[in-house]
Amino acid sequence: MAVKMFVTDLDGTLLNKEHRISDGNKKAVQEAVDAGVVVTIATGRMYESALPYARELGVDVPIITYNGALIRSAAGKEYFSSYLAEQDCRDILDFCTEMGWYVQLYSDGVLYFAEETPEAQAYEAAAGVRGRSVGRKGLCERCVHVPKMLVILPDASMTDGAAHRLGEAFAGRITAVKSDPHYIEIIKPGVTKASALRQLAQLLDIAPEETMAIGDSNNDLPMLKAAGRSVAMGNAGPDIKAAADYETADCNADGVAKAIRRYVLGGED
């Protein structure tokens, strides 16, 4: 069955290691759009961080952000949103403070952190957004309309264990998923890129089997499994590759472009 919707992750997938979309990937996306395929983005990033990339691609469809917690068009029309409970946000802040972990949150499209630490500065640079330093009390006061919180750990060997501890401590209240060697995304239970993919496909009147997803990280796994067909990046881990139907080149070798041409357009990569 032909692919009618192609959903791509951003970091480590559509973006190269310099956080840019290569000319090769841009050209392949345009070829797919010209062929009538809906191409869109599903990312853990905040909407404001993902929007410039959607515009760069010329994507004029709803985009999936905050790991599925918000679906919004490039023009700003909201199709779906899911927010963490205020008390859960405050309890998570307390927990992370006790553990000595850096944590940031997003409220009404603004990035907040307690202090302008190296973690905050590195995230701002990678995401292309400016955050606001509001202190520990200020974070607690901004636990409204929070689609996602993010823990950033300095040692990648800590991430899996920290995600597990968060999942145990807040079982049934949140989902904690590793999205980068140093990142743990915290979202509402049931919210995933997969749930958003299904909602978006239904919105666009596209059957699930007519969708294809591509990604590289643990937070992409539900989406890869939910799509009609799936592609793992060459830089993905073994578990991601095992779950996908196909494998393509890595993010520095136009893996998305190769996947589009081979598995969507049916040509040579």
Describe this structure in words.
The structure is a single chain. With 269 residues, this protein is an alpha/beta fold. The protein folds into two domains: 5-81 and 191-264, HAD superfamily/HAD-like (Rossmann fold, 3-Layer(aba) Sandwich); 86-187, Hypothetical Protein, Haloacid Dehalogenase-like Hydrolase, Chain: A, domain 2, CATH 3.30.1240. The protein is built from eleven helices and 14 strands. It has helices at residues 10-14, 23-34, 47-57, 86-99, 118-127, 135-140, 159-169, 193-203, 221-226, 238-243, 255-264, and strands at residues 5-8, 38-41, 63-65, 70-72, 78-81, 102-107, 110-113, 132-133, 149-152, 175-180, 183-187, 211-215, 229-232, 246-247. The strands form three sheets. A six-stranded mixed sheet has the order 8-7-6-9-11-10. Strands 2-1-12-13-14 form a five-stranded parallel sheet. Strand 12, helix 9 (221-226) and strand 13 (229-232) form a beta-alpha-beta unit. Helix 2 (23-34) packs parallel to helix 11 (255-264). The two termini are 20 Å apart. The mean pLDDT is 94.
